[in-house]
Amino acid sequence: MHPKYRPDIDGLRAVAVGSVLAYHAFPSLLPGGFIGVDIFFVISGFLITTILLQSLAAGDFSYRDFYARRIRRIFPALVLVLLATLAFGWYVLLPGEFSQLGKQTTGGAAFFANLVFLGEAGYFDATAETKPLLHLWSLGIEEQFYIFWPLLLGLAWRKRWPILRVTLAVAALSLLVNVLTVQPHRAAAFYSPLSRAWELMAGGLLAAMRLQAMNAPVGSGGSGASGDGRSWVKHVQSVVGMGLIVLGLFMTRSTKAFPGWWALLPVLGAVSCIAAGPHGVLNRYLLSNRVMVWIGLISYPLYLWHWPLLSYARIVAGGEPSLQVRIAMVVASVVLAWATYRFLERFVKLHLSPGVLRGLAGGGAALALAGVLVFLGTPLPRNDSQALQAVADATREDNYYGGFEEAALDGQFVYRAGTGKHNVLLIGDSHVEQYAPRALELVRTQADKARTVYFATKGSCPPVPGLFSGADTGCDERRTAVLDLALKPEIDSVVIGACWSCYFTGAGPTVNYFVDDMKVVHPFLNGDGIDLSLQSLGAVLKRISAHKKVYLVLGNPVGMDFDPLKQIQGSRLGGMTAASGQGKAPMPLDQAQFNERLRQVAEANGAQVIAPFDSLCAGGQCIRSMPDDGSPAYKDIGHLRPRYARSFATYIDPALLDEGAGSR
User: What angle do the packed helices 264-276 and 7-25 form, to 10 degrees?
Assistant: First the structure.
């Protein structure tokens, strides 16, 4: 038993998919567009729970029929998109990239893509834009819900448990998991079904409440209570619901702790819109508009097609594609979505035979198996060579904290390794994190001298009090806490470092940095923010060096010249080759000059300097290749790859060994 068709819900789907599409293609236009997925979750929870409860009430519920309907709904477009994505990936991707696409394909076909991406970079990281199947994480959440929820709901129905209370309990528990994990474990909160289930359950709660109202005796506040005299309530719900969604689209940011409390905006907005019914003012005149309904009808294939097209456009372009290309990809995704809906989905809907069902299930299983084979290296992509593989391996090598123990130090999350007599705390951003493999290697090979190391890092968070950016992600709270850790008696020495060039010379991402001294904002551009930042850094070094040994790690060379992908000649759509052997790049003079300013700050405030440039550069040239096999020494434009750091970043050793590095 399916709920009565509501065109306004298709219109709400249009809002959801349009928001996601706008965010992915034109992120500055709609910075919170990713909340469209949360709207989808609410819609799915409402419709699936309505179907389940109506079927249970009618006594004709069958798990087999339920999952058969899910296969007919989900698999046709999914199998087509997976097949097309995998085929095009074979043509344009490098060996390592194609292997990873195989893993993503298996995750997408078997509905655990969210768990695959949980172990990789976050949804909002730059590398996420080159994962053609990243968007299938949300499908994994929904399908896992479809497995868990019918079983629990069927049990509750048989046991005569109060359905509304069961639904509310599950939603409350999941919401609690969400808000408790979103700060310390942001990726888990984003991708885990445990922290996302409450969004689907919000729609489920609405379905359960409607069923309860329908079953209530006449005159007891059931369906008879919502007559024409209360139509204004529906209009208010419609307006409030759309208002909350619009608020979420323009106030939510990828830099905020999401989902967390911020997800309440799209979730409550979607619930309110659905609760308003088809006659709410905006539901009737906006969401039920023919164009909105048409977009809603193709929303599922549109969601599936848009991201692989945009992701491949970025991969082929080697960076952000032009506005014209992105517009073309959006148009292409709409055309492909319409064709998929018109010729594939409708065909399957009209031919509901067991043979079609078995074919769809078999196609999904075959793609899952194909993904495993691709991940294991069979077949190799078109652009395959040992040199290309070396470049691909370098770009994928990012497990800097592999082998470390996750621990807490005075309430702060840290990575720990070693059992040395003295403890060293490393503070900074990912350019301090990049030395973790070297620390672990010293713990392994020189256990008698190696210090116990604690890494308290946060990406894109310079260890300079008062220094902020327009894209701040809770940096100040973490920075303050870990700098306080440096003064704890259990810490014997402290290492402070960062991608100084990224913040002060423009070598990194284009971000607006400034100093806020609680009285006035001091910008870097056309202001005195840089000078004040160096004063703040000097004060930190002086405060800590009064009690213990402090090292300041200067920056390593950063820039496009060090990008491993620069070793590749040719084009993705044509043929590609990769240079091998020892490669060097011109030394960035502005970075070297700024390092000298940092050296003066360190020496004036009692800190010992560690200078990567002295080891990485000579004669105006800096290395960009491994000394042993000529493969890239960097994983991207600025981070040394773990394999290089592990074996060759010996300049950091004085801070990590007791030898000549004891505490004061």
Answer: 150
The owner of tokens 């949360």 is 38
Q: What is the pLDDT of residue 135?
A: 95
413 secondary structure, DSSP code: E
* Burial class of residue 6 in the structure, from the number of CB atoms within 10 Å of its CB (0-12 exposed, 13-18 middle, 19+ buried): middle
Q: Could you report the per-residue pLDDT of 10-30, keeping only the tens digit for each?
A: 999 999 999 999 999 998 889
282-321: b (≥16 Cβ within 10 Å) or e: bbbebbbeeebbebbbbbbbbbbbbbbbbbbbbbeeeeeb
Phi and psi (nearest 5°) for 389? -65, -40
pTM recorded for the entire structure: 0.76
Burial class (CB in 10 A: 0-12, 13-18, 19+), 28: exposed
Which one-letter DSSP state was computed for residue 490? T
Half-sphere exposure of 189 (CA within 13 A, CB side): 20
- Structure tokens given for 15: 């809002």
Exposure string over 158-178, b if 16+ CB within 10 A, otherwise e: eeeeebeebbbebbeebbebb
Q: Which residues make beta-bridge pairs with 585?
A: 622
Q: Is 406 exposed, middle or buried (0-12, 13-18, 19+ CB in 10 A)?
A: exposed
Strand ranges (E), 473-538:
493-497, 513-516, 521-523
- Tokens describing residue 622: 């800096």
Dmax over CA atoms of the chain, in Å, equals 90
Q: How confident is the model at residue 522 (pLDDT cuts 50, 70, 90)?
A: confident
Specify the DSSP class assigned to residue 2: P
Orientation of helix 323-339 relative to helix 299-317, angle to 10°: 150
Give residues with Cβ within 8 angstroms of 355, minimum separation 6: none
Contacts of 410 (CB under 8 A, 6+ apart): 485, 488
Measure the CA–CA gap between 187 and 178, rounded to whole angstroms.
11
Q: What is the pLDDT of residues 40-97, one digit of tens each?
A: 999 999 999 999 999 998 888 898 899 999 999 999 999 999 999 999 999 999 888 8
Q: What is the pLDDT of residue 177?
A: 95
Tokens (6 digits) for 642: 């773990």
Taking the C-alpha atoms of residue 129 and residue 126, their distance in angstroms, rounded to an integer, is 6
Q: How many CB atoms lie within 10 A of CB 335?
A: 13
Helix spans in 354-410 (H)? 354-375, 386-396
As beta bridge partners, residue 158 has none
How would DSSP label each residue in 570-606?
E-SSS-EEE--S--EEE--HHHHHHHHHHHHHHHHTT
What is the rounded distance in angstroms from the CA atom of residue 313 to the CA atom of residue 209?
A: 45
